[in-house]
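User: Fold this; tokens only.

Assistant: Input:
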Amino acid sequence: MKALLVSADLLVQSQLTSLDPGTWQIVGTGEAALSVCGREHIDLVVLDLSLASLDIGECTRQLRTLALPPDRLCAFGPHVHTERLAAARAAGCDEVIHRGGLVQRVRELMDRGG
């Protein structure tokens, strides 16, 4: 499995890469995610809704229209960011997770292959 984390949060980066160190690539912007996904097939993209520069609707749309779109898009954020979480659902993310359940839910996604 190939997974891509779009986040500048060092704690989240550490938590997810510790699940399977050889699986994860990390980028800090939606534009960088599009670049990576445009070059290679990624099974799982995890988008951090706390990134102020991330336009979840536009990023999701662009990822879905790539020649080889990611198999699954997952967005996460603090439970108090209800508008951003709702925007991720409306944009068509396959999973929208509260930050507290991120590691467990991503582990489940990885275990079942997306």
